């Protein structure tokens, strides 16, 4: 389900979308003319009908080229090839492979045990453990769904056994999993960096402090809820237990140190860090822990190939879409729509956040990034927003979208692994949207939170 969701987009509520598309079509027609309105209308119509996102993008662009006659149709194939001919994209299969290896090698369990010994003494202890484990694991996988599917199974069961409400357990697990693509390494950041021609290393550095801020604010909400519901500590602090669990997890905890430290110190590029993560995960799983069998390796390899192919298909199709938008000056039309507000940095950031939040409710993260970067980024850059800062804003917005219906991929994954209905998962997540939105506003309007580290290291 997780991998197919990247390729296929299906929303259970079609009628409201069709109504919205009708309004959108009228606006686009008034702004851009017949051909571009046909492009958008055909794209969103195919999405509503359940056509895979990559096929919808490529198909709409091909029809646009054929009808408009602006360029030969062979340009579609050339643009798709050029779109995936990028060195940073090599990081994608390796980070996916590394995350799957860690989930299958038992690394997640060791991380959870250490986090419990470190933070279980706090009020609402396992809730804080949940966040802490996600912060550590985010430095390894770079994907929210990998966090939810890997750590989520362990965390939700532990919280249920300790007497926590199921909705609370699922809600904090879902919310904490969104930290994964913010703290480096991050698959969405790699895609954004390619689409925006921005430094992936700077994007990784820019996500570190916002990710830690997300964790701190989620822990604040856990404390508030725990006081109201009477949740207490789940374990006494013990130096001996902490030492034992640290000893079991120390090699696993070195993974984010190797990845992030190697990038920041310049030992290797973000792409090379992905390879290092795979080599280290294989070393732990095969040589040290001896938990990876040939059967598991084959399964993980096939999953990685399938997921990578889907992502690259989307990126290739989106590159045609981006080229059409830029060559037809869609950004200039958008500026005309905003009118006097187009020169206001605050207005543009608010507009971008609103668009991203709405799109994030209906579209998978990678697809949304590839479609929206060529539309929104030039508008933001024109009012003085740094592309690296805007990348963090975009990814954080879309992470919140993973927790909202009708798509809500993280909620679907956790519903499956926890046997809790989607509706109850959604109810449990609602309180944790408050700190995430507050964090989004802080990151949006206080650029130093994102830009301090990349400025210190790279500029």
Automatic annotation (TrEMBL):
One of its GO terms (cellular component) is plasma membrane. It is a multi-pass membrane protein. This is TRAP transporter large permease protein. PROSITE patterns: PROKAR_LIPOPROTEIN. Its main location: membrane. It comes from the Bacteria. GO terms for molecular function: transmembrane transporter activity. Belongs to the TRAP transporter large permease family. The chain crosses the membrane at residues 12-32, 38-66, 87-107, 127-146, 167-183, 203-225, 246-268, 274-292, 304-325, 337-359, 366-385, 391-412, 432-453. InterPro entries: DctM, TRAP_DctM. Part of the tripartite ATP-independent periplasmic (TRAP) transport system. Keywords: Cell inner membrane, Cell membrane, Membrane, Transmembrane, Transmembrane helix, Transport. It is found in: Cell inner membrane. Residues 41-449 form the TRAP C4-dicarboxylate transport system permease DctM subunit domain. The complex comprises the extracytoplasmic solute receptor protein and the two transmembrane proteins. It comes from Billgrantia kenyensis.
